[in-house]
Write a structure and sequence with these properties.
The chain has one helix and seven strands; from the N terminus they run αβββββββ. The chain is mainly beta and 128 residues long. Strands 1-2-4-7-6-5 form a six-stranded antiparallel β-barrel. A hairpin with a 6-residue loop joins strand 1 and strand 2.
Amino acid sequence: MSSTFDGLFGQLAVPALMQHLGEAVAGVYLTPKGGQKLGPFEAIVDPQTTVEADSSDAKQKKHVRIVQFPVQTGLPFWDGRSLIGATVEIGGVDWALEAVETLSPSVATVRVIRRVTNEVSRPGYRQK
């Protein structure tokens, strides 16, 4: 249950904050799983962090970003659960929506990832 303040903040303040603080270079688009592309959104996009991981046949990097979207009322997938598996396009690059960090009446904070294989070796080379 949201308060009157939440409603007013979502209607009046969030769009202005997103426009002021958001990434406006190329826009941010959202494609729900099995849906059509929506946007552009004025979203707040954190810098990416990178984690390296080894597997048996390659080195992989997992790029992670946190994105804050203004909640679009009236769209059925803004319940949070339906967002998992969506694609988020930031500056022309597709990211997979991995988790919904927080969901308020006015802002959805999500974690998006992109996996990149940066070194592949012959089969069994890394197994020692």
